[in-house]
Amino acid sequence: MSEVHYFPRYSQKENMVTNNTLLLFRRLYNHSPIKFTEFMNALFENNDIVLNTTVKFKQQEKASSGSVPDGYIEQESIKVVIETKLYGQKNLPQIKKHWDGFENEDQQIFLWINKEPISGDYLDKINKVLNTYNDDNQQNIQFVATTFKDICNSFNNVLNDYDLEMKGLIDDYESFCNETNLIDNSDSKIRVVLTGKTLEQNLKYNVYYNPADRGYQNTKYLGLYKEKAVRAIGEFSCIVDAQYIPKADKIDIIKEVKGSVTEEQKEIIKEVTIEAKHKYGYQLEEGRRFFFVDKYYETNYMKKSKGAVQGTRYIDLPEIDGIDQDMSAADIAELLNGKTWEI
Prior knowledge:
Distance between the termini: 35 Å
Protein name: PD-(D/E)XK nuclease superfamily protein
Shape: globular
């Protein structure tokens, strides 16, 4: 017999996802307005926004006309416009049209929900357009980007052990998100790349690089593979598309994919590019994607199956015995050392 769900599964269209998300929000509000406010503020906290849903009770306060009524019951006006994106679409003109839905509310928040965290460069573009829009239209709209995963985590965090119905609700919503691929599980994956002759250089500079036009799937960890084993694991600190310009002796930063590149990392880009030319014959002028890690931790996670790894592979950490979600890159490297894996 099929299990009865809180949230329908029969469609993956954006309106179904939005409907289920709004239903989740409304059920929490009906359960506890206080917990709903805590939940929303958890989503907004990185933007220094505090949603004020307080109802104020005032007595004998003078009005602007000079009259003094016996009492007031007052609440700020709030409007949150929500846009859900299933596939990371970027459509600034569409977003700008949605801002016309605001009027003269005290708090105006545009909530953008996506599968993956918004990139820094796209966030900058949106805020630049939004600032101009606010100035031109005498509005004070604030932009907030979140993910379906953040919604699940923040919802869980405001619940108590005795909130059994709400726990069942969020469990079903999270299952819905997983079934429809709305939750980014990058934190639990290792991107395994072939290093071959560059392994020593990668370890020395805590970096890996390849052509910028290759496909890229977001993960938290990077594994360096050579001679039928993952030899080192590191956690990403910065990913950037860059090019060294020999004549000008400078680094051209094309795109910051994740994090912000430091001056020290720019110097490393220059050094490894020149070194790669002399040692491996790589072209100086080629633009590359540079993957920086905090530190590589050496390991020996051996490939058991026959044949070499062809191209990039991904390791799902939850499938490994002994793994814990709180483990660091160093812990993971130690756990995998001496073990085998198959693909």
